[in-house]
Write a structure and sequence with these properties.
Distance between the termini: 18 Å
CATH topology: Jelly Rolls
CATH architecture: Sandwich
Number of strands: 19
Strand content: over 45%
Shape: globular
Helix content: under 10%
Structural class: mainly beta
Length: about 240
């Protein structure tokens, strides 16, 4: 495990778990819980419900070093979240990994159930849709798995491949010294559609760590218990 965030109290704030906080922080974030379909989930709520005259942004970042994730090493970035609303442009609800000269960035957009997409930021800075998925219906796993042997990144949603594998050249470039994982909302543009996202967990780890099929997941005590693949790792969110 290179970096992780969980909503386990009492230290549910990301800043108390080693993450630095950025953005203009115009709107506070807070922990809480909600029940969907009879299941209760804890979350860290990034709620930028601002008027156009008072744009807001808030995101969290963990740096790592080359010894943490050596070159030519496969890795998996995971977020378990729900996104109620996010504008169709700008770095709104996102999960990102900067590794070497490649900036792997996934952005979620949702203005309605019929207009809800998972996108990546291309080498030109454009949003490219990987496909439609209602990000507000329930909590879901969003994952990036980088296969170092193939030199490709595959996006997964709830353990299933989402879109085609992507080479590093499809993504934006960054300084070779940039090594970090980052998540949250970095729009801050005052768009008419605001960002409202609920984050249960985030992590970055070496190797292949894509979640099992949804049927193999059990939720206990308002947190997420990963069975099957993760039982060996004893990784549990409460």
């Amino acid at each position: 495990m290179i970096a992780s965030y969980t909503t386990a109290p009492p230290a549910e704030s990301p800043t108390l778990q080693g993450w630095s906080e950025g953005g203009n922080l115009a709107v506070p974030a807070a922990g809480g819980s909600e029940t969907i379909g009879g299941t209760t989930y804890r979350y860290w709520d990034i709620s930028n419900t601002y008027p156009a005259s008072n744009a807001a942004s808030r995101f969290y970042r963990r740096n790592f070093t080359s010894p943490d994730l050596p070159a030519a090493t496969s890795w998996t970035a995971t977020a378990f979240l729900r996104v109620e609303s996010a504008p169709p442009e700008g770095s709104n609800a996102f999960l990102e990994v900067a590794y070497g000269s490649v900036f792997w960035s996934l952005n979620l957009t949702r203005t309605s159930a019929a207009s809800s997409n998972i996108n990546y930021i291309s080498s030109t800075g454009a949003f490219v849709s990987l496909g439609s998925f209602d990000t507000a219906a329930d909590y879901f796993y969003l994952q990036m798995y980088y296969d170092a042997d193939a030199g490709q990144l595959q996006v997964y949603v709830n353990g299933d491949p989402f879109g085609d594998p992507l080479a590093g050249s499809a993504f934006r470039s960054t300084a070779p010294s940039n090594l970090f994982v980052r998540w949250g909302d970095n729009d801050g543009s005052g768009r008419a559609t605001t960002t409202l996202s609920h984050w249960n967990a985030v992590r970055l780890e070496t190797g292949y760590a894509v979640v099992p099929e949804p049927g193999a997941l059990a939720v206990l005590g308002g947190g997420l218990l990963l069975t099957g693949l993760y039982r060996r790792k004893r990784f549990c969110l409460r």
